Amino acid sequence: MNEKEMILEAMKTAGVPLNAGKIAELTGLDRKVVDKAMAAMKKDGSIVSPVRCKWEPAQK
Predict the structure, then answer these.
(1) How confident is the model at residue 60 (pLDDT cuts 50, 70, 90)?
(2) 54 in a domain, yes or no?
(3) Would you say 39 and 23 are in contact if contact means Cβ atoms under 8 Å apart?
(4) Which helix (H) or strand (E) holds 54?
């Protein structure tokens, strides 16, 4: 499972919008790795921000 899959899985499991710090805590990934993966995910539209600084999977 790559970083993006781990992040999406953590978001789905939590069921609420999460910030990068909480995602890093839940997945065990380094915060810098989470930030980099999330930046790419924001660009490709796989995550959306319903509230400031919190993210959730996009509804596709």
Answers:
(1) low
(2) no
(3) no
(4) strand 54-57
What phi, psi does 29 have (nearest 5°)? -80, 155
pLDDT digits (tens, 9 = 90+) for 3-59: 999 999 999 999 999 999 999 999 999 999 999 999 999 999 999 999 999 999 998
| Cα gap 28→54, rounded to integer Å | 18
Structural domain includes residue 28: yes
Please state, as a whole number, how many other Cβ atoms lie within 10 Å of the Cβ of residue 42: 14
Instruction: Determine, yes or no, domain membership for 33.
Output: yes
Condensed to tens digits (0 to 9), the pLDDT of residues 31-45 reads 999 999 999 999 999
Instruction: List, in sequence order, every beta strand (DSSP E) within 1-60.
Output: 47-51, 54-57
